[in-house]
Amino acid sequence: MATDHTHDPGARSWLASANAPGTDFPIQNLPFGVFRPAAGAAARGGVAIGDAIVDLAALSAAGVLGGVAAQGAAACAQPVLNDFMAMGPPAWRGLRHALFALLRADAGGAGADALRASLVPQADAELLLPTRIGDYTDFYTSIHHARNVGRVIRPDNPLTPNFQWLPIAYHGRASSVVVSGGGFHRPMGQARPPGSPAPLYGPCARLDYELEMGFYVGPGNAQGRRIPLADAEQHIFGMCLLNDWSARDHQFWEMDPLGPFLGKNFCTTVSPWVVTMDALAPFRVPFERPADEPQPLPYLDEPGNRARGGVDVRLEVRLETAEHRQRGLPPDRLSATSLRHQYWTPAQMLAQHTVGGCNLQSGDLLGTGTISGPTEEEAGAIVELSRGGTRQVALPATGETRTFLQDHDTVILRGWCEKAGAARIGFGESRGTVWPAADA
Ligand code: MN
After folding, report:
1. Which residues are known to be catalytic?
2. Ligand 1 centre from 203 Cα, in Å?
3. What fold does the segment set 136-435 form as a domain?
4. Which of 227, 285, 366, 381 can pair with 310 through a Cys bridge, CB separation 3.0 to 4.6 Å?
5. Can you give 106-170 as a three-state secondary structure string?
């Protein structure tokens, strides 16, 4: 988790777009994804740099890499990154260092020539899911979100008694995780409106987004062998943006007592680029728990996690309605916050997931749960901003308002890291659109 020469904020690339101010993908970032360079072409792994993608299948075939970097690039030539994630931190870091060396401003020779020949414009590429996701689990680790939503469901007792003792989660649905850029039909289902004696079947009337981050599992563990907290980060490849779309009316009717089901299984959108934990090293922050609140049990506590278990990722949610598009207006920002406010760290979530013996597999996806900060303006879901639908959320650009999402609304999540003494790096975006309910 230490920083090295690949985090040097003064480093520049010979690729001009990688040095552009405000780019999400400078040479210090090097996030991994999967793409097709052209329609009909085979999917393969790549690394985003500036406005281009390093085609790792092409670079691997050029034979200019050696050692663990060559092995890593060969794994990335496949249509999913599961095998590369299984290789663990030495391969991840080895390939990062090799790419950095070939991309830096003073690189030359056959290696840099091969890298230049492997570049594909991002504008020409079709971005795909980075892994074959075997399992997806979504946590619930913002105490601010838990209190805000808890007030809607249980006004007298918003926080459940377990929340401050363990990172709670539900097992989600991997089959409906999609990559940024598409959409989904407004889900049908059951809800019981207030005062109604019986539930009604129909299209969701309280459709919401959830601002989250996801992280992908690296080597993973055998069934029955837990991953100790101190080792947990060796099993986290990197992070992405994640939108856990939620049908609140369906969810709140169905989830007592077994948790979310159809209210959350119709679509989950992730950003295509996975920013590695290596790239995030300059932005780690202490895990801090107020002294008057329960401290983690020993198996969820460890000096490294206390010193730097958190990550300061700046996040924002924007909404683009049909009217924004018609009038050519920029999307309105609904909220902004940081991942650093979560009550549990990614390492604690991963350790908790395995403590009973559950096996995590390479390429599995874990979500942080909605990321809501301490103030009202930092809420990561519209059910919080609209206080359960009782208050209109203003969209200043068009003059529209929302309590929940309407058809043709596009929700855009963005994330980035920046601080003095480090290069700014970004996650790109996660974008998804609500389509009208479909006829069966
Ligand atoms: Mn969620």
Report:
1. 145
2. 20
3. Fumarylacetoacetate hydrolase; domain 2 (3.90.850)
4. 285
5. CCCHHHHHHHHHHEEEHHHCEEECCCCCCCEEEECCCHHHHHHHHHHHCCCCCCCCCCCCCCCEE
